[in-house]
Amino acid sequence: MEEINVSLEDVKPLCSRSSTIQEGPRRFPPASVLGLGLLAVFLLAGLIGLAVHQHNSVDGAAADLSAVKANLTERLHASDQLLSSVTEERDGLMANLTEKTREVDRLQSLSKQNQDSVHLLTEERDGLMANITEKTREVDRLQSLSKQKKTCPAGWRMVSCVCYLFSTEKASWQQSRQNCRAKGADLVIIDSNEEQKFMTSTIKEPTWIGLNDIDREGTWKWVDGSLPTQKYWGQPPDNVVKPLKSRRSSAKQEGPRRFLRASVLGLGLLSVFLLAGLIGLAVHHHNSVGDAAADLSTVKANLSSVTEERDNLTRRLQASDQLINQLNASLTEKTREVECLKKACPEGWRKLNCSCYVLSTEKASWEQSRQNCRAGGADLVIVDSNEEQEFITSMIKEQTWIGLNDINQEGTWKWVDGTPLTLKYWGSTLDNGSGDPVLGEEDCASLVAGRETRKNWNDLREILSCRMEDVQFCPMKKQKNNDVPL
Predict the structure, then answer these.
(1) Chosen CATH of 350-483 out of 3.10.100.10, 3.40.50.1100, 3.30.1330.130, 3.20.20.80
(2) Residue range 309-334: average pLDDT?
(3) Where are the alpha helices (DSSP H) in 116-155?
């Protein structure tokens, strides 16, 4: 394609002329211009007036809405402060209760550790003996290894317990590997920086190593099948990207217009714009009034919601008060447990949690045994947990009284403090207080040594009598820790 160069000086003008013969210059009537100007003025005045009215209406609605929002915000802030205060108090009580619980758990753990100290020390001694035996074997093994002297064949070099041979024969990779394997070795596998430095400092020319991607292009593996972790490849050349530049040229052309035609067109456009603005402002005013009404409805709905939230907060505060009372009660109980766990039992008594126990060697009836217990500031034992049942079972060696009877009403078993029986560890259906048709009723409960822990309760028949003193039973005394003098 040939390049066309045209100079502006060589361009000739192209003129045209209308075939209509005009007798004089073309003019627009002045009345049209004046009318359009007045229309623009009226439209502008209407636009300004509507804008002022819109501004006043919006300001009034905004002031009312701001007042309502401020009132709602103040109420919400007060409710949040009250809820935050109650929550902080509750969190403090929870933290205190948690701390007390931890202390109780720690003291219980220490108590249990004291009870099992002999057993633990025995296990620790056995563990230490086993550890000593194992360490002795390890020392013997190390001494045996130290006596062995490892050397490399002649011509090989040892580095970090590994023998290396740098062959002077030149061959392919496969042939080189076969030569190495014929000597009981293989091409080198580099798995540390020290080994890489040693190899680099030793070689004088290109040397094969045991790395290849023969099986799959790009997947490098050592001769033992492992993937390389340390990589020492050379750096590839940098890529060069050359920028592509472009240039755009543009030209603008403008044509002349007549002054009168431009004025009329400008006034017409101004009138259209003013009319459009007036219509738009009217629509905006209508929408603003609708939005204000919608906002007012929303505020009323929010007021109802805030009122409901206030009621919910009131109920939550009441629930928090109940929780605080419960936490205070729990904290008091935990404090009492901590204090009782810190106290010790009298000499000869055994401790479980907050209670002290003693197993009497005197043989007596159930009533006499209880009197003996109460004379010592205690009472016959009340079993109220599986842990306590297992504990007292581990203490007895023969049949032993407990603080359970149905003397007042046959079949209605109660503890000596008047509480009804909940946990039951009867040995059989004949041991549950049902009585015997031949021997009579059964009134007093005891523990039978040698039975299963959860099935070792027995009750004595009336013909033998709870008051019989020649039956060889050992009464169990139980004393609360807070009754024990320090």
Answers:
(1) 3.10.100.10
(2) 80
(3) 117-147
